[in-house]
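Ticket reopened. Same input as before:
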Amino acid sequence: MSPESEAAAPKRRRGGGRRGAADRRGSAVIEQMPWKIPYNTDAPTEPLTPEGVEAVHDGAMRILEEIGIEILNAEALEIFRKAGCTISGENVRMGRDMVLEYVAMAPSEWTLTPRNPDRTLPVGGNAMIFGNVSSPPNYWDMSLGTKVAGTREQCANLMRLTQYFNCIHFAGGYPVEPVDIHASVRHLDVMYDKLCITDKVVHTYSLGKERVEDTMEMVRIAGGLTHEEFDATPRMYTNINSTSPLKHDIPMLDGWMRMARRRQGLVVTPFTLAGAMAPVTMSGAVAQSLAEGLIAVVLAQIISPGAPCAIGTFTSNVDMKSGAPAFGTPEYMRATQMTGQMARFYGLPMRASGVCAANVPDGQAMWETSNSLWSAVQSGTNMVYHAAGWLEGGLIASPEKFIMDCEILQMIQRYFDPDICKTGPDEIALDAIAEVGNDGHFFGIQHTQDRYQTAFYQPFVSDWRNYEAWESAGGVQTPERAHHLFRQIIDTFEEPPLDVAIKEELAAFVAMRKEEGGAPTDF
Amino acid sequence: MSPESEAAAPKRRRGGGRRGAADRRGSAVIEQMPWKIPYNTDAPTEPLTPEGVEAVHDGAMRILEEIGIEILNAEALEIFRKAGCTISGENVRMGRDMVLEYVAMAPSEWTLTPRNPDRTLPVGGNAMIFGNVSSPPNYWDMSLGTKVAGTREQCANLMRLTQYFNCIHFAGGYPVEPVDIHASVRHLDVMYDKLCITDKVVHTYSLGKERVEDTMEMVRIAGGLTHEEFDATPRMYTNINSTSPLKHDIPMLDGWMRMARRRQGLVVTPFTLAGAMAPVTMSGAVAQSLAEGLIAVVLAQIISPGAPCAIGTFTSNVDMKSGAPAFGTPEYMRATQMTGQMARFYGLPMRASGVCAANVPDGQAMWETSNSLWSAVQSGTNMVYHAAGWLEGGLIASPEKFIMDCEILQMIQRYFDPDICKTGPDEIALDAIAEVGNDGHFFGIQHTQDRYQTAFYQPFVSDWRNYEAWESAGGVQTPERAHHLFRQIIDTFEEPPLDVAIKEELAAFVAMRKEEGGAPTDF
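Engineering reply: fixed in the latest deploy. New output:
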């Protein structure tokens, strides 16, 4: 290959690359990867020995047998009583045989089917799905430059990002809490927005009877489903947190039981910060988290045997200097991996998170988030909450962080592409190596031409230009590039199709429930 | 535990934590982790099936058997000829039996002993050691705000960081190329600086006879060693790159052979960018990299059976839009993991890198670097080059990036601490869980008090405060915090002890060699 043809070849490929990729990916603002369920083919990282697994299991079982969990919800307490648990006041204890018998009823794999069935999600097995940041009360973006209380508009914009990015598989809770909507009707307005803006799987908060019943009804309407159809397979999911240590509160269990009866997706995630709400030792924190989680799984199975459950981990550590929660730490990673081993031991799908302690989308934010996301991969996590947009230990949602995180999520999706590690004759490519010899370049050869459009991951917010090209284009750093993309995506966003009659029915339901006063706000 | 005592407890711990940690870590500027060799206890991630390993091996062998490698160094060519290889011009071919016979002579584990024997390093097995960025021609720091050509002072400052941080185990090549020193004597001045500033293992460039001989002599002097003592065990190491595709040049092989004869550490790292200097398919790029690397190992073993070798990977991909190299990509991660499998197949220690394409130490820099560092962990890499301070695909060294990377390296070191995953009765902590019950806090209990000083990783550049505390302290983002630490570390840096007579002998050697004209600069 002559120097001349070498110089010419990249030009041809550049043009071709852009056209080809746009055809393949079809997006106005960025060339993103197509919608796809990633399957985690890596053997999980297992820091616990078999004896360690038994020790953590034994710890969790002894917590349930000897110490017990406080169940503040009277209805749940009565269900546990009838099932044969030992009740003392609000303290519930049960033998490990009973725990294992009920946990075994929970399926190890299940699905979530949203209003667009093309977006149906597998939960469990090797599937790994990602959802947006949920529940921060505050919002930060570069145009504001400071932390502000969340609004409905910010919440809607973050849901537009959720819909836009193919690497986000499900919509979590409120991507930012819209505190400009009264709490009594917030669930109605946000669920309406959510069901219009996205056709992906949605979440509901287990915050008492009215919110759960209202949002189940809205998801049913949005899907154009009968009640029987809604109940037949999980259409949405909830996530509850225990009040660690060793306590489940009234509204969360209420929602949990309502969702269990209708066989919707059930995720329980104790918030066990080691050294604060759990032992300072990570295996103890994991054992406690499991005990708190498993009792909720047992409750769901008593009510509705076979109800789809997943066990979550939010075990991290506090900063012992300040008491502040820390995320993406080595201890967090190991706790996530240990919980993965235990989830497989119990045959339950697992949920973890993409989290950080950093306050702004800078270097620290990205190494902490990388640590948490890679530990999700290493642990065999199935559902990754907060996978995009999380800052300040979950107190801030940021669109720039959302977009930066999506680059990592796309890379994880590509990382799982088995094509990268193919070793057939075409990939070992002896003929190509012989053709180029020791004095040429692989740019121009047919073996490269046939593959260059799909051979490598193509980033959308990373800047791979050299310093001079980057500087002469303004020297724009990552968060600012992400901010620019955020504006473009929002400006050109188009809602997914939704039948007009369904939209009207949803609006009418919201209006009716508002007239009725929405949900009580006394908790 | 009463609310009052809860409030009081964190204050006591904060004070105690600082004192305790300072005692334990003993550092003026930051509380860093102690010097320690991390051992990687994770099972490696293995994307290749056993058949895949055989296919990549077969590819590498067929390259050596059928296509051959161009050996530009006449002395090396003669050695290969005498050993029975098929020579055609400068093309060298050999059968797989010969390759495997010689590769089997290379030890799977060896050591590197610097002038301070307390800093002796294991190479191979489960040990994982980290070195600083090497060889960027340019430098960037926040006070400059732009990219500039490297100087001796910048080079020395980066070596001070190398010495300062316990998580950096070995000194690589020039952490930035000091272009203000003439190339003929650069190796003399920098090696003098290096041997004064650091007592850790040092590297030398294989850039022709004089540089290698001069620097071996200087390392011998610095260690107070006889020639026999120097030759008895590896005291330093070199790294050579092939001129991919399929070529080894004159000066690098010259240095390689000189180092082999004196049984110093030998690392060969082909620079095989898929789609440019290697096939666009990753397994082909890995096979080619192995062929280029293994022929150097064979050369070393012919010259000096049992010489300590390691095989490096620098297989990544180019950006097919611009031709620019990309780092920390999914393809990079998988290539590193595949090479790890192959290094174990051949029984050789492995070298990888901590790398990124980003131009400044922002979010992109940290997710790319995190990807590359975690793939080093996943692949079972033994030596991690460029683990701190690398930007712009290796064209820029940055002290801020250096310090930010050291936070990740410390976290990896802590991640390997088996204490995190202990599952004895003290760690499962049933008594502590029973003691706290469902209405308390683990902050104040004895189980926590006994462990909080060492229970969790403590960061030095991460800011774990909440947004308000962070903002009121100036809202300083990660690179600026790193810059501040950089200044403090340099301002208070103290060189490790070095005998005055040795220092004088080193200075005299440098002066003599300068009078003699240093090294030729005609290549």
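Chain B touches chain A through 131 residues (CB under 8 Å). Residues 463 and 470 of chain B are 8 Å apart (CA to CA). Please confirm and we'll close it.
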